[in-house]
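USER: Write out one fold?

ASSISTANT:
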Amino acid sequence: MDNTALTLDYETTEGTGALPDDYGMEKVEAHNEKIRRRKARAHKLDCNVLIDPLHNSGEHVERLLFNELELPCFIVKDDWFELDGKRKPGVWYCFESVSKKGEVSRKAVFICSPVHVEGISNTEDKRYFGRLLRFRDALGRWRYWSMPMELLRGSCEELRGELLAAGVEIDVKNRNHLPTYLQWLTPENVITAATHTGWTAKGGAFVLHYRIIGDEKVHFQSESLSSDGAARADGSYQKWQKMAAFCVSNPVLIVSICVSLSGALLIKVHRDSGGVHWIGDSSIGKTTALIVGSSVWGGDDYKRTWRATSNGLEGVAALLSDTCLCLDEISEADPREVGAIVYSLGNGVGKQRANKIGSARQVHRWRLSLLSTGERSITAAMQEGGKQAKAGQLVRLLNIPAARRFGVFDNLHSFTDGREMADYFKTECAKHYGHAGIKFVEHIIKQGNADFGAILASLETQFIHTDTQAARAASRFALYAMAGELAIEAGILPWPQGSALDACKVMFEQWQLMRGNGGGATEHKQILQNVMDYILKYGDSKFTDKNNPDDKPKIDRAGWYIDKPGGRVYLFSSAALREAGGNYDFNRVLDALDFEQWIVERDTGKRGKKTAITGGGKQTLYWIKAVEGGDHA
């Protein structure tokens, strides 16, 4: 039999040529198996050398004696060491054991791979504590985690789960020693623990999940080491700027980036959370605009969808505080929850909840800008769930049409069509992201005690408005313009000076057009529309002719009507008018009707009128004459 194939391992490993002819098949197989095992050991040795560089250097291994230790105690070593034999790196528990015969023996048991307690962490309000841990993962990389002390409660399964997921090796038999080790000594080093991202209380540092921008001694503290969807940077800053240059002359893209940057300015100008909701038909590029905005702070996983509950988005908002929350396609949300989500995100405070022992849990808090997309407006989405949009919701998340000349684009630059341009933005944003937000925060820190409020006030004068709600929207667009112009000034955005302000003015005009040129309070318009809709729906079935006693309502009576030369006047009962007004306070309904002069008759000093009804005595009714085509939605 030809031995060539059988001697392949021998030749490539030893380099001595063919085996003797009389070596025998069994000996050849045994020899090759020996060589294969040697290769496997060599491969395994290479991995260990990478992870534990000193594990095979016996002359340099640290040597310890039990007599030198104050038992019981914990020791943590980053390299192999000797203690009554060679031991691997990690945390060890050393103790004395007494047998039934009274014999004393000294032992050391392995708990986990190297984990150092570097210091005590304390939140900015001094209420909650933690431990700053430095540990080595399975690939030999050192990592930090500010661990909340509350994870040491109970069986500590959550704590062990986080460490195991992060690459810490924990001995199954001795795992119960881990919480004792973490509390064994109280470190002298004390650091500030930030429980949410964004600006610290002192304002000298900006906390991200993976890094701290600024000089304050602070660490991000959370129950989880996971950073899915958090702000992060990757790729090339210069290539991101090259991509951003194509946003010039495209107001939707410019405003998307400005809104995303503005989250870092909210605390500086004392503004609440809020943002922009891009509305438009499918496939015009709304998601592209959202991706461009999200690339300021993060990658593909930074963009979320509306397919979430208000409770679920609380944790996300706290994770992204002082940055931007990007939500795609409002149609995926439960329409019954849209209003609650908008209010919750805009107010910046989560729900108050009780913990397992009944006391109040710490409430999530945040400040952030919002970017949203959808084929429907906030109002339409809420109406599908049987809700009516309030003015407070509509000024927190501004409905703006995104359709421009080429989808969401005004200027294609060198691209042949909108699809090619959208594909370019999506490809580049997937590779290069997160740098602009960091550079912008660094620029804000360099400004020191600059009066950002004065800058905002000067920009607000360039947005013309006619009522208080429009004033709030104008202030938001001024903030977005301010963020963009500051970033241009810092060289972060490669745009001409003034382009961010011009784009924000264009979009403010679009918001006003969608809202209605007549201006006025949103609640005012909605009340008038509600009453008009009620009359159109029930005018012939719930109202009867006051001058015809035989005219009976087909269903529950809402009131009567009187035909006059100028048109029909509806005499509403108070219950019917409350129903017609919707969810608004009754006095607010009367205010709107009175302002528009829809109340045509009344008693002195009243808005109702005592009216004689045949067979029903006198009742207080509201004499309403609706004017079609008036200033309502």
Remarks:
- The mean pLDDT is 86.
- Residues 152 and 180 are 9 Å apart (CA to CA).
- The two ends are 94 Å apart (CA to CA).
